[in-house]
User: Which sequence fits this backbone?
């Protein structure tokens, strides 16, 4: 069974969003026409809507789980058709397979799923330490996470360091200096799409905690 079948609802929602985004950006390479892209998008939208309805129904004491499970099964079946198509196409690189969140061939000949890290947060401290935390989002042990940063409003990402855990302390920073972080999961020469961005001292909204 493909690894994406084992994802929890919140993980599958992120994974499916990325799958569609990469499919849309690489439609020609993947051999997708508009109708096929639409079928992926529709299956994703229907699953997300059903998932949202479950949250609302829980709050109201109603039941919507059966509908959600039906739409989830439909989404997974749709993805499986195209996943098999992409993975059997010699014209689709393993790098693109990794971007799609599908399994890539490991160095030992096996297949290992690679997912974007998720839930990145950052907390800035008065001693110049910026503390980062994120979720593996289904990535197995052996995944290396590359920490990147963009300072002072720059659009250019700079390499900071790597971590094999899901946390990193960026020391020696200037308290108050604007910085945005992101995480890139890598394994065996392949890399997933970047995580969400987490900002400090930017004055705008972000998924990060601001300085303490």
Assistant:
């Amino acid at each position: 069974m493909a690894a994406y079948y084992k994802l929890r609802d919140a993980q599958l929602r992120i994974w499916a969003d990325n799958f569609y985004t990469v499919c849309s950006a690489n439609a020609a390479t993947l051999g997708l026409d508009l109708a096929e892209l639409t079928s992926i998008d529709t299956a994703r939208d229907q699953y997300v809507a059903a998932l949202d309805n479950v949250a609302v129904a829980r709050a109201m004491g109603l039941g919507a789980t059966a509908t959600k499970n039906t739409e989830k099964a439909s989404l997974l079946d749709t993805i499986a058709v195209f996943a098999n198509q992409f993975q059997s196409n010699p014209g689709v690189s393993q790098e693109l397979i990794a971007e799609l969140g599908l399994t890539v061939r490991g160095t030992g000949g096996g297949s290992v799923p690679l997912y974007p890290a998720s839930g990145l947060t950052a907390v800035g401290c008065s001693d110049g330490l910026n503390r980062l935390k994120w979720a593996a989002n289904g990535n197995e042990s052996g995944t290396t996470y590359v920490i990147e940063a963009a300072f002072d409003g720059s659009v250019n990402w700079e390499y900071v360091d790597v971590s094999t855990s899901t946390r990193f302390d960026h020391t020696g920073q200037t308290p108050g200096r604007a910085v945005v972080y992101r995480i890139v999961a890598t394994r065996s020469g392949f890399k997933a799409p970047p995580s969400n961005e987490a900002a400090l001292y930017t004055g705008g909204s972000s998924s990060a905690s601001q300085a303490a």
